């Protein structure tokens, strides 16, 4: 009996050990395979991230088309990245000044800044299409939506989805932040226009101001554009 | 009695009315004067804001000095604003990917992005000073601190203070976010270096990679630099 019991015990132990060993080995293998999967996933995520950042980096060399027809400023035409930098900074200041006025704290500052940062990234694939490029508004929109979809897929994961969501929200003007960033997009352009006009006295960029008539609905937007207009050189 | 009471009542009412009227008039005057003050304050804040944004806009025309000595890429040297745009985008992606990994949610995404956005704004006044400009590290730091102080005073209010605080935190590397943005500053430069090397096959930018040896402490930073190095053209 003892022997049997021992044997059984032994067998049980053995069985348990085997089972335990098997679980442990399986666990090790799973863990190793998870590590490999996790590692592969991270490597793939890294590759996608750098691909995405490289595509968006093309905005450094993408000229803002609107200015290019003015031969006086050809050598100083800003890039889409230049414009995106300052509109993001404007969004940050706009958000901070709103926070100073306790009664009107209605905008999400992080959303404002990041939306401004990504609002033109589809142009890294399709370029800066303006109303003078011979492409209809609908066609431009289709091209940009496709480009954004490609960028989302390139980056992947939650990051890709978050950036696409922000971009679409901006495009559709479907939130307060989106409507503010749309105002800032025009304000950044007008500030740049007034700076070009002050630097190149023969250049008259009235068409840019005219294109923004009635665009400013926020109190800050109205005050900012008034100040920018005040800075235009007297002709 | 009645008359007296009425009279007293009347007098009280009168007194109250006078008092009330006087308070009301004072209130009106205060309110008007506050409105005038408030209006003046807003006008002044708007002027300061546009001044600040115009100074920072100079980063669009400020070349990143490091690349300028490579004559092959002279015509394609990026601006400090170009660099600032992509580092802010990198910071956003870095923050979002961290959020996907629930266990490591330690960084404030808004702080990461806005710190990246403003990390070079002092250069809008002092230019992009590199170790090859003949200016010591201490002197460069003094110049930039003074420039940042000027920018803070130009913008004023909470917004000016917030931006200066972020900039100083970055300069001193005094938070996790600051240390990450310092890594991103180098990663953005190396990604740009690898892109230039792939575009201009004769250009060898090894000195930029060497200057970053041992700079990457975060797991993502290490993976990103490995991927960037993998993209350098084979010589």
Mean pLDDT level of chain A: 87
Number of helices of chain A: 10
Q: What fraction of residues of chain A sit in β-strands? A: under 5%
Helices and strands of chain A, in N-to-C order? HHHHHHHHHH
Question: What does it look like?
Answer:
The structure is a homodimer of 235-residue chains. Chain A is mainly alpha-helical. Chain A is built from ten helices and no strands. Chain A has helices spanning 2-57, 65-68, 80-100, 109-118, 123-126, 137-155, 157-172, 176-199, 206-210, 219-230. Mean pLDDT of chain A is 87; it is low at 1-21. At the A-B interface, helix 1, helix 3, helix 4, helix 7 and helix 8 of A face helix 1, helix 3, helix 4, helix 7 and helix 8 of B.
Compact overview of the structure:
Two copies of one chain form a homodimer. Chain A is mainly α and 235 residues long. Chain A contains ten helices and no strands.
Features:
homodimer, 235 residues, mainly alpha, 10 helices, globular, disordered N terminus
Topology at a glance:
The structure is a homodimer of 235-residue chains.
Chain A: H1 2-57, H2 65-68, H3 80-100, H4 109-118, H5 123-126, H6 137-155, H7 157-172, H8 176-199, H9 206-210, H10 219-230
Helix pairs in contact in A: 3-4, 3-8, 4-7, 4-8, 6-7, 7-8, 8-10
């Amino acid at each position: 009996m003892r022997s049997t019991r021992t044997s059984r015990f032994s067998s049980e132990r053995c069985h348990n050990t085997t089972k335990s060993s098997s679980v442990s080995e399986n666990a090790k293998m799973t863990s190793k395979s998870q590590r490999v999967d996790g590692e592969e996933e991270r490597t793939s995520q890294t590759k996608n991230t750098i691909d995405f950042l490289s595509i968006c980096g093309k905005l450094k060399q993408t000229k803002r088309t609107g200015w290019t027809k003015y031969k006086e400023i050809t050598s100083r035409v800003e890039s889409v990245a230049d414009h995106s930098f300052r509109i993001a900074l404007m969004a940050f200041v706009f958000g901070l000044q709103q926070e100073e006025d306790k009664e009107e704290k209605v905008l999400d500052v992080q959303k404002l800044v990041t939306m401004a940062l990504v609002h033109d990234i589809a142009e890294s694939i399709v370029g800066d299409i303006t109303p003078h490029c011979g492409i209809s508004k609908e066609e431009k929109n289709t091209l940009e939506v496709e480009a954004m979809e490609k960028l989302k897929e390139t980056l992947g994961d939650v990051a890709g989805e978050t950036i696409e969501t922000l971009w679409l929200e901006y495009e559709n003007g479907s939130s307060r932040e989106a409507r503010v960033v749309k105002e800032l997009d025009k304000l950044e352009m007008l500030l740049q226009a007034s700076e070009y006009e002050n630097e190149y006295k023969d250049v008259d960029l009235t068409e840019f101001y005219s294109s923004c008539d009635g665009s400013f609905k926020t109190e800050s937007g109205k005050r900012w554009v008034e100040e920018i207009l005040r800075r235009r050189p007297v002709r």
